Amino acid sequence: MTIPSLFRAASLAVILFAGVPDARAAEPAPGAGPVILQVNPCLIANRTGKGAPCPEPAVSDSGDNLVRAESHRQRALFFIDMQDFEKAASETDIALDLLPDWAEAHHLAARIAAANADVPRAQKEIAAALALAPEDLDFRATNAAILDWRAPFEAFKEFNDIATKDPAHRYARGQRARLLVEFRHPDDAMMDLNFLLSGKQPAFDYLPLRAQANLMRGRPRDAVADYTTALELNPGRVDLVTARAAAFEAAGDDEAALRDYDTLLGPVGAEKAPYAISGDQLGAPLMERAKILVRAKRFADAATDMSAAIAQGGKRTVLKAQLFLRHNNFPEVPLDGRVSPELRTALQSCFALNACTQGVMRAN
Hey, how many other C-beta atoms are within 10 angstroms of the C-beta on 61? Predict the structure, then answer.
């Protein structure tokens, strides 16, 4: 069965399913998939001293192993908030020493191991959790996330089944949407993405993914709107500024794209970009801005940006550009692997010629 048909089957046959709870879990599971680093008030207070610090949860001295194990699980969750996965893993180990058959602790250990890319430990722990509670949808979703590293199509089928059984399972629906976009089925992904980004608690982390889906669907203006909202929530994120510039460009709004590139790179010829970026992260937007500048017939500015972009690739990339220009009637360009006034002058002249422009862009 193809991916779209799997998705349509899930849409048509929604089955409500009550997962079997872990009888020993003192509180609901804290999610699914690898744990992620998040900024939270306790982290800020404990790292900066601003605000009331959050104390470590105490270790229980109860004679009940469940109570003691739960105190260590709470400490693990605290250390996750503190972005200290090593201590969090140690606390889950203690909890499992106390209660070896506590499915929720195995699940948390799997999530921490997955975040650390410790594949053998993640696989071992999620297998233990599933052996104890095979129908738990959070456990199955974490297993699918681990499976995704080596078998994305199989992971998709599992996320699809989870989301079919529980349409409110946000993690499974988000991962199903992500995989549908990766598999280039953006229209199918939109139902999940619109669900995740609606309601009382929109999952704004999915805005860039919906923007990507909209670009694939030929709706760049919708993509711009999502990137704009994402930037309002996370101002200054380089990837979002770059992505929105590309979306503006896809929408045919070169002026707005240039504004974003100028925000990211500074004015043409700036010695230092406003953001601390280098290498490809700097070279790619420089090249994209150069393309827009060529279309605006600002050939000197385009040559300046292109020279700077080529320089980010090092001597070999500069030599490739010099060789291309030499082979296209610019014999004055030196073959020394360095950006020079002669290189910029040749690029400026090249950009006035459409065929040459396309060639130099492809060559780099």
Answer: 8
